[in-house]
Each structure stands twice: as C-alpha cells, then as structure tokens.
Amino acid sequence: MKKLTTITKKSFILYMSMALCIGLWSCKDDDDPILTPTIATISPSSGEVGDAVTITGTNFSATPADNAVSFNGTAATVTASTVTSITTTVPVGATTGDVTVTVGGETSVGSSFTVTVPAVIPTITSLNPTSGEVGATVAITGTNFSATPADNTVSFHGTAATVTASTATSITTTVPVGATTGNVTVTVDSETSTGVLFTVEIGTTITVAVADSCDDAEEYRGAFETHPDGEVELHSSDLELCTEDSAMQQVVGILFRNIQIPVGATITNAYIQFTADDTNTEGVLPIDIWGIQEANTSAPFTEVLFDISSRPSTTATVNWQAPIWAVKQEKGPDQATPDLKAIVQEIIDLAGWASGNTIGFQFTNDETAKIHREAESYDDNATEAGASPPELVVTYTEAK
After folding, report:
1. Is the pLDDT of residue 245 over 80?
2. Does the structural domain 38-115 have CATH classification 2.130.10.10?
3. 334 φψ region: left (φ > 0), alpha (ψ -120 to 50), beta (else)
4. pLDDT tens digit string along 191-215?
5. pTM value?
6. What are the distances in angstroms from CA 47 to CA 41, 56, 163, 350?
7. Which residues contact 35 (CB under 8 A, 6 or more apart)?
8. Residue 79: phi, psi to the nearest 5?
9. Among 3, 36, 233, 309, which residue has the fewest nearby CB atoms (within 10 Å)?
C-alpha cells in the first residue's frame, strides 16, 4: 500500500509539471508582441489628390480595414492589402510629408510622399478679331489667365506680343511686329493653352489715276438739244457730276486700269479723289455710285449709245452727299467720295478677277434742282497745267 501511494504521488507530480509547462507555453504564445509594419517603397512617390498609390513592405494586415494609412496626418482609405502590399489613394486634404502604416497599434517609420497640385492650364475660347494687321488690337477670351498683365505670355505663331490689360477670363493685346499667320497661345505659370488660328494681314495702299481719254466719259440721260438720249461724250474737258449745265442729267463713267490687288484680298478702304474744275456753291449734292460688275472692265468707253449705263452695275452702291466745292482746283476731303470698299470688294470677289485688271464706276443721281459738281477729267489734265484726273485710292490686306 505504501508503494502504491508513492507511485500515485509521483504520477500526480509529473502530471502537474506537464500541465504547468503547457500552461506556461500557452501563455507565452498569447503575449507575443505584434510586429511593427515597415514601408519599403511607395509608388509613385508623388501624386495629386485621388491618385492611386501602392505601398510595399512587411507586417501589413491582409484585411484592408486593419491597416491605417496616413498621408502627413491625413487618413487615407485602403482599398486592398496583403501582408506585403497596400493599395490606397491620396486623400482630400493631404499635404506633402510622411506616409505611415499602422497595424494593431504599431506604426511604421514614415516614408516621404509629395502631394502635387493639378496644373492650371489656360484656355482660349475666342479671338476678336480673328485676323488683322500688325498693331491691330486683339481681345482674347478664355479661362485661367492672370489678372496681372505681365504674368500672361501671349504668342502670335511664336512671336511674343505685349499684353496691355487682363483679367482671369480676358486679355487685350496687339498683333506684334514680325507676327505671321498661325496659332495664338497664352502661357501662365509655364502652362500653355492650345493654339487658336489668327491670320496676320499685310496692309497695302495703291493709288491709280485715270490713264486714257476714253476712260472717263459722260452719257446723256434723255435727249438734249442735238444730243440723243444715251449719247456718250468721250473727250470732255471736265466731268459734270451729274448734270450738264443746268438742264440735262447724265451718267458719268470712270475706268481705272492695272489695279494691283491680289485675288482673295480684303478691302479695308477705297475712295475716288476728284479735283474741282470749277467752284460749285450750290447746296449739298446727292450722288449715287455703283461699280461696273465685271471682273475686268477692260474695254474703254465708246461713243455707242448707252455704253456707260448699259454695263452691269454692282449690287453694292454708295450714296455721296457731296459738299460745296468752293475752291477751283482744290483736291481734298470735300472732293473725295465716301468709302467705296463694298463696291471694290464685290468686284474683286467676282470669278475671273486677277491682279492688274480694270475696275469701273458709274455716277448718277435724280437731283431735280439740276445742281452739279464739276471735276477735272483726263482731257483737262492733258491740256491744263496743274489739273489732276480722278484717282482711285484703295487699301487692302492679304494673309501673311
């Protein structure tokens, strides 16, 4: 009995020892410290708010919600994770600084990340006008301009322009010397807009005088004494606009030859300059002016009846309220017609127009008082010193 008791005690002691060891081993496993996460790389190392970022390292949780990611103190959302990688996005409010990962209360050493600001790119929505000569003012509308004029760089096909005024949505500038046709761009803070086409035009003025006796003529409207209706007088020493003496109305025709205006040009101004052949002190005289609607009015006037009025007239017409001509041989603003650019533009836009062609005009009125203006003609110029025949002055532009 004593021996059995001894064996039992030994068994009990052995059992208890084993249980204690198991218990100690079990407790040691439950108290193991959580391993601190580490960051090896962040890709990319910079980005804007909302950009995806992949963090690689160790000791992350495979459960996304168990990983707390911070961008310089601003919490980010983890969208996917393994024990060695985390996928997240740059959160709203993030600033440049360290990114950290926290798992189970253990936080990694920070790794630098640069939060970038999205580029603000200027845009051009319109140019007004879309074409012009050097020195012309151009209004640019758009977005993301600087309200400080000097902070906007405007380029006309690579040639810098001066900005005279600006807001966040508008710029006022001028076409610079040396500019050529091409895109206009705006650069602000090193960011450049998409280009918008601007056509740079070359301005040219030409002056052409009547060069032949048969290129300025008068045609009677109705029979007058021995003159039949429609008779054309080619060699008059003056041009009666538009009444002969004070009794007979007439149509005056004038041709200007060798007009050097290229096809496609834009007429910006045109007028005919007369010289007073005599003083005319009657009141203001209304005169209607048409062009001869032919791309090349090359045939001189002839004595064929109605050879002036029978030629086709332009749709465009200009009314001239001719002022008093108080001084003989005066050649100034009072003897110049209003702007005839619409008439000239219509003619050079006709099919068949070519530089060097002839342009013709017709002058008439329905003035019942029979007053007139007496201008010098080509024939007067040929016989009288100081006389000057009619001159056509045209300013036009063409793309450069």
Report:
1. no
2. no
3. alpha
4. 999 999 999 988 899 999 999 999 9
5. 0.64
6. 15, 17, 34, 60
7. 58, 59, 106
8. -100, -20
9. 3
